[in-house]
Amino acid sequence: MRYSLFGMLVVAALATTLVSAQDDRPASPAGSAAVEVGGKFLPGPVEPVYRGGKWIEIVYGRPLRRGRDVLGGSGSNYGKIAITGGPGYAETPVWRAGANQSTRLKTEAPLVINNKRIAPGEYTMFIDLKPGAWTLIVSSWPVQSQHDPKNREAIWGAFGYTSDKDIVRVPMTLTKLPFSMEELTWAFTDVTESSGRIAILWDNDLAMAPFRFEKGL
Q: How far apart are CA 40 and CA 116, in angstroms?
């Protein structure tokens, strides 16, 4: 009987540990999308190796839909769940287009978006959500590593965002998907040696904005 009780205690302890581990998993996992451009495939010891490329990366948090109409609503309520994260949360003027820290664009290559040059470096990205009209924003706002409401020099998510640091705004092309994406996803599409598209997918919405590489890349 003593051993049976011991075994039950061990099983109970393991179950508690597993539940705790599951509870520790972030509600919005970290994600990234990346593309390498401007290089060439050169002969390697076994197979060709891509050399001389420059990386473009989007780093973001990946909220899950969890049965919500995240990008629905009408009029002034359009996209409120995406912008606020849900009832009881503060509203922001634009959408962080992710979760947790602000969404960041890191580029080693000079880009041109809506005829505006984006020099190599790190930037923040947001989306101005309007029914049928999304606008991608590339901004110079620095990012907080942890949320500090008193810090006015950097932002967390889109809290404290102001448009004075906008570098470029570009309208996005909107498409309805024939399926629903559970986890918010940023991606690079239609990438060539001279151009590509930045895309975001969530629920059954796909929004894209074109970019091109500055000559001389």
A: 27
